[in-house]
Amino acid sequence: MSLAPDEPAVRITDLAVVADCRVLLQLPRLQIASGEQVAIVGPNGAGKSTLLRVLGGFARPARGEVEVLGRRFHSLDRVGWQQLRRETGQLLQGLHLVPRLTARENVLIGALARPGLSAWRSWTRCFPAALVDEADAALDALGMSAMRHLRADRLSGGERQKVGLARLQLQRPRLVLADEPTAALDPAATALACAALRRSAAGATLLTVVHQPSLLPLLATRVIGLAAGQIVFDRPLAAVDALLLDALYASSDRPPSGTTIEPGQADRERGIASARPRLSTS
Amino acid sequence: MKAASAAQLSPAARGRLGFLALAGFYGALVLACVATLAAAGDLSLGRNPWDNLLKSLADFSRPSFLDVWFGPTRLEYRGDGGELLRVENRREVETAFLWALVRATWTTFQIATLGSLLAALLALPLALLAARNLHAPRLLAGAARGVLDVARAVHTLVFGLVLVGIVGLGPTAGILAIALHSMGSYGKLFAESIESLDRGAIDAVRATGASPAQVFFNAVWPSVLPQFVGNHLYVWEYNIRDSTILGLIGAGGLGLLVSEAVSLFQWSRLATVMLVIVALVMGFDALSRRIREALR
Hints:
Chain A is α/β, with parallel strands linked by helices and 282 residues long. Chain A contains ten helices and ten strands.
């Protein structure tokens, strides 16, 4: 809204995330334009989740500059963080539902920070009927209408994931960070979930960690390959094929020093990256 | 040499050896207790335990409240010369005793209820300081934990004896004694409830941009409240048991009647009081268990 249209949704400069003397993530530069749909792929331990946690404000980088939706992390105070989180929808691993609340109440948590909601309603969970209808519709779309009055701790793993997706939908975020949003879902539910994710990310920026190559066309137009905390490739979806992904996942077998793919390909990566108008080269 | 051989043992074997050593130590401790008691000649059961036991059992088996219906209406007390000293209507005397019992039961309930509530209120801020995941300043957290440990270590009766000397005989001393001791139990239970909070759920609500108050009411409160209510019922129930003996030290309630009956060797009256205590405790236990299960 206050964001200039050409302002990137995410801008990372010289980022390093360290935990227990181990470098989890090292990104000299990464920029994601507003409205872009980006998938992050890579083997386990590549730093995919860490990247999303940094962007969501749940992991602190050791070094570097992060700017999300035009807000610099360094200059954010408590209220600034609150505003940024309101506009950032997160579906991260380990971000659970509130166990003792029902599915519907958990979905309505997504609407807590909406400007029109009065404080007492948000404290007593007496939401206006229109919001409740919206929550029920979001649950319906995921095939969860029968479970809306069940407590979250009585739901299965896949059902919880769906409730998380519906919560995301009510939040109406401008940036969506989704970490394996279909991890616990069966094939039919996966299609529903991808549709829901696209719905809640309509007009917003979508950043998804994906493991199934078949989901890439559904969720992304640009694919970033991570391995050992570093970007291996960053290219449009059309330029990603099975060979490239195989090479990326195979790279986890080797020590971090050998994580780059063949030099010619790496050069081409850089060529693509610098050709993208939104990626600054300076 | 020994260290080297211990290092060669597998972890499972070392664990078993450790358990055997602990069990052996425990056995030695029990033997030492029995041996020192026997050496001091304190392991006796009195002069004729069996006769005493049978006599007491006979009295217990005829609780005094039956006198309300079956007691003699005219009980005559006569002196050595056969002259009439006193006439009692056992039914009226027993009815009056039962009314006193009802009042004492209510007093005991008052002591347990108000003492528990006071304890919970005192313990809440201390538990917030003592809970490890809230990261209170180390000095304050240590102080809170210390206060709670001391409160738990000192028995209700000890607090009661001291407080009777300060605030005088009566239920007030009992309420304060219960409050001071239970504060320790509450503090520990509350702190554990807070420590078992699901951090991920709180972060998830925070991640939607909710304000701190919204996070509290939508994530912390619904998780903690049922646990707090469960803890409160549990300690309350415990205190109803505990407060039945507070009368022994003059804090009022059923304990007063217990000590009266014991000092006058009125075992049948003691039986009546015991029946009331058992009924009270069992009734409240069942009620609190039902509520706690419903809260799960």
